[in-house]
Amino acid sequence: MLQRACALGLEGIVSKASQSVYVSGRGRSWVKSKCSARQEFVIAGYVPSTTGRKAIGSLVLGVYDGAELRYVGRVGTGFTSDIAEALFAQLDEMRIRSSPFAKRLTTAEARQVRFVRPELIAEIDFRGWTGDGLLRQASFQGLRDDKPAREVVRETTMATDAAPQRPKSSVTLTHPDRIYWPEVGVTKEGLADYYAEAWPFMKPFIVGRALALLRCPDGIDGQTFFQKHAWKGLNRNIVLVKDPAEPEPLISIRDFDGLMALVQSAALEIHPWGSTVADWERPDMIVMDLDPGEDVAWTSVIAAAEEVRDRFKSAGLAAFVKTSGGKGLHVVGAVKPKAEWPAVKAFTKAIADSMAGDSPDHYVSTIPKAKRHGKILIDYLRNQRGMTAVAAYSTRARPGAAVSMPLAWEELAPEVGPAYFTIRNAPTRLSSSADPWADFRAAAAPIEEERKKSKATRRR
Question: Could you tell me if 312 and 429 lie in one domain?
Fold first, then answer.
């Protein structure tokens, strides 16, 4: 049950000794098993926001080691605008002149910090500890008032001590406390932390490809715009690539610094081409976007994905599935880059048309959105030159901070909807589950049209 809970991105499970009776409150018969590192920390100070007046930008945290308060770092994400302002008002009344920590902070640690009486307790979700005992990728979950601050000590768990190290980046994030998703309090720093976790899995799907970005400089509630060409002040880690068919170069990235540069540029969605810049005309992946109309049950979308999988299999292709982070599912095929875009588009159109023809009450392949009530659009049009689809593991610029999450086919279930996985719960899943797309590239095969041509050539 714990393994399943972790795969779903949940905090963990609480279990009770089978012989004991139910009693409310804390007790020795109850055991908490955590999927991720989460514990209480003492709030010893705060740093004001760089983007708003009378709001916090981050909290300064500590734990007790005997009678001494020890510094463990800062948390700068997980605050909604209202929470950031409420904490500022509360902590500003608790300010003290000197540091409550037993050891003197370094210049960098103490920069802009306003110290407070160490009385409040924050619950923090984090990804582990650094070698020098500081929190990694922390996220504020709320205040706790069920224990005295003096009882807060460092907890030791396998999850915290075995956490992998974050990839290093030379990119500086300006205004890291800028809130991109206001209703869930995800900041620029929080987005960077998520992508640090996702990078090993996400890298093959975004590196070395032309990218279209949805940029939201003021967060999802501000102005948003798609961008595929360079802009003024383009970070040097975002590279320009020359599309043979376009006069103006497109944008791409080569490494983790490139991804962090996209975060700094407020790119909240990443949409790659289906082909690489090394072979513009021959895609190495195809995407079937299952977009449900109004009043379509989620179980029907799952059934549609499984039917696409079966049709891919009949054509000799392995199929992989991911949530879209929006309304539907994406079925993705790994293909060998042999067929060019017109043949790939014809191949995917044939699948969409055949599904719509076989089950016209359930599917459509081309129809105006207003006429799709009760039906699922099998969108194949992303499989043509210059078109893109949201990347695996990319965030979405929508309320809730959902991500497009790869799944194993057996994980498709009614409780895992299209926006189930978010920046908040995705890291728990990534650290607790095997990669369901680990064999994506190894499974690549030529599409059926290319295979038929090869057979015909051999017969001649």
Answer: yes
Does residue 22 belong to any structural domain of this protein?
A: no
Per-residue CA distances from 103 to 99, 106, 357 (Å): 9, 9, 72
Tell me: do 145 and 185 sit in the same domain: no
Structure tokens at 42: 């003492």
- Domain match, 382 and 315 both: yes
Query: DSSP labels for 129-197?
Result: E-TTS-EES-EEEEEE-SS-GGG------HHHHTPPPPPP-----SSTT-EEETTTTEEHHHHHHHHHH
- Count the Cβ atoms, other than its own, within 10 Å of residue 455: 10
* CATH assignment at residue 77: 2.40.50.140
CA 302 to chain centre: 21
Beta strands in 273-352 (DSSP E): 285-292, 319-323, 329-334
Residue 144 lies in domain: 33-161
Helix, strand or coil for residue 281? coil
Number of domains in the chain: 3
pLDDT, tens digit, 9 for 90 and up, residues 385-421: 999 999 999 999 999 999 999 999 999 999 999 999 9
339 within a domain of the structure (yes/no): yes
pLDDT over threshold 80, residue 456: no
Tell me, yes or no, whether 4 lies in a domain: no
Q: For residues 303 and 444, state if they share a domain.
A: yes
The alpha carbon dihedral of 391, 224, 180, 411 has a sign of negative
Q: Which of 313-327, 339-353, 358-372, 424-438 has the lowest mean pLDDT?
A: 358-372
Nearest Cα neighbor of 397 from 225, 171, 227, 199 is 225
Q: What's 370's domain CATH number?
A: 3.90.920.10
Inter-residue contact 363 to 355 (CB < 8 Å) = yes
In a domain, 17, yes or no: no
Structure tokens at 395: 């965030």
At residue 157, the pLDDT reads 54
Q: Is 62 exposed, middle or buried (0-12, 13-18, 19+ CB in 10 A)?
A: buried
